[in-house]
């Protein structure tokens, strides 16, 4: 699946000019337009420093996640290049794009942070915040599969010290 996404991104980006080779942590190679890759400040800095001759290794980003990040960057780069692009279309894309399972969401947060893609990082973090908003501690633990490692005594003490946080 990541390979198909990589080919789609590369095909769509080929007409855009200079190409950059990105290499995921599992060795998958993604050839993308410089305009798309440069949405990552990490990659943009490497391009500016002329450090991309042999490709850009991304040891912290697996291919499935990189394909998803590049899908996002490709859509946003195209919107930035298109005159009169409808903001609503991009908002609609973002809303559909970020509807992923929790594991993928957190992988996107880590990748966006590592690659320094601020708009994707903000989108993914907002989605995580939306998943938490209005939930009790127990509901959050269930949502994110977090084990309670406090003893009942420790939990009672924390609830007592932070009573304001546990009010309905």
Report on this model:
- It comes from Oryza sativa subsp. japonica (Rice).
- Residues 120-165 form the SKP1 component dimerisation domain.
- Belongs to the SKP1 family.
- This protein has 168 residues and is mainly α.
- It has a single domain (2-133), classed as 2-Layer Sandwich (Potassium Channel Kv1.1, Chain A).
- 60% of the residues lie in helices and 7% in strands.
- It has nine helices and three strands.
- It has helices at residues 2-13, 34-37, 41-48, 63-81, 87-97, 102-115, 118-132, 137-144, 152-161; strands spanning 19-23, 29-33, 56-57.
- Strands 2-1-3 form a three-stranded mixed sheet.
- Strand 1 and strand 2 form a beta hairpin.
- Helix 1 packs parallel to helix 4, helix 4 packs across helix 6 and helix 6 packs antiparallel against helix 7 (118-132).
- The radius of gyration is 20 Å and the shape is elongated.
Q: Estimate the strand proportion.
A: 5-15%
Spans of at least 5 consecutive residues with low confidence? 9-16
- Let me know the average pLDDT: 87
Helix content: 55-70%
In DSSP terms, counting alpha (H) and pi (I) runs of 4 or more, how many helices? 9
Anisotropy-based shape = elongated
Largest sheet: 3 strands, mixed
| Quaternary structure of the protein | single chain
- SS class: mainly alpha
Q: How many distinct domains?
A: 1
The secondary-structure element order is HEEHHEHHHHHH
CATH-defined superfamily? Potassium Channel Kv1.1, Chain A
The end-to-end distance, rounded to whole angstroms, is 45 Å
CATH topology: Potassium Channel Kv1.1, Chain A
Spatial strand order of the main sheet: 2-1-3
Please state the CA-atom Rg, rounded to the nearest Å. Answer: 20 Å
Number of strands: 3
What is the highest CATH level, the class?
Alpha Beta
């Amino acid at each position: 699946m990541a390979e198909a996404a990589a080919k789609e991104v590369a095909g769509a980006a080929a007409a855009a000019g200079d190409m950059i080779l990105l290499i995921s942590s599992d060795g998958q190679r993604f050839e993308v337009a410089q305009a798309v890759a440069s949405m990552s400040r990490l990659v943009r800095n490497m391009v500016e420093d002329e450090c991309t001759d042999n490709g850009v290794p991304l040891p912290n980003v697996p291919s499935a996640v990189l394909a998803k990040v590049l899908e996002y960057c490709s859509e946003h780069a195209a919107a930035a290049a298109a005159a009169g692009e409808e903001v609503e279309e991009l908002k609609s894309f973002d809303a559909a794009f970020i509807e992923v399972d929790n594991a993928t969401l957190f992988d996107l947060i880590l990748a966006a942070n590592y690659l320094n893609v601020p708009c994707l990082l903000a989108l993914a973090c907002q989605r995580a915040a939306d998943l938490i908003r209005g939930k009790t501690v127990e509901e959050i633990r269930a949502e994110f599969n977090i084990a309670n490692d406090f003893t009942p005594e420790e939990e009672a003490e924390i609830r007592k010290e932070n009573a304001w946080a546990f009010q309905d």
